[in-house]
Amino acid sequence: MSILKAIPSWTPPRDLGALRITTSDVDPAAFLRSLGAAGIGALKHPSGTAAAHCRLLLGSGSALRTAAGRAIGRDNPGPIVPKPGDKRFSDNAYRENAAYFYLAQQYLLLEHLVNELIDGAELKMFR
């Protein structure tokens, strides 16, 4: 059988309005410049970078301890909570399952780390 017969007929993508992104909208060179600038900015501020990583390490330990407590039935809050209105972690699994709770905590802690590093890098906007 030909591979072309095995592939279902192609249908055009649905219009997603503002969410529609095509490959022509992505500029990899600008992304790499921004990523490089953020890395250099983080290296220029080593004390802030080290402090942000220490906060991540302490938060990760606290999240692990809290998740272990949740695994045995405790209902302690984690070291970080989602922002009000953030619906990504609204499912009950993130509160009831210790593993999902820990994954959500790690995601939020890493998101906080990235935001701290970018803020500390004092980046200027590229034009």
Report what the structure shows.
It is a single chain. This protein has 127 residues and is mostly helical. Helices cover 58% and strands 0% of the residues. It has five helices and no strands. α3 packs antiparallel against α5 (98-120). It starts with a helix and ends in a 7-residue tail after the last helix.
In short:
Helix content is 58%, strand content 0%. It has five helices and no strands.
Strand residue percentage: under 5%
State the helix count. 5
The profile of the biggest β sheet is: none
Q: What is the distance, rounded to the nearest whole angstrom, between the alpha carbons of the first and last residues?
A: 52 Å
- SSE run: HHHHH
Give the C-alpha Rg: 21 Å
Contiguous low-pLDDT stretches (5 residues minimum) are none
- The level of helicity is 55-70%
Kindly name the structural category: mainly alpha
Which of globular, elongated, flat, extended, rod-shaped describes the shape?
Answer: flat
Q: On the 0-100 scale, what is the average pLDDT?
A: 83
* Total E-strand runs: 0
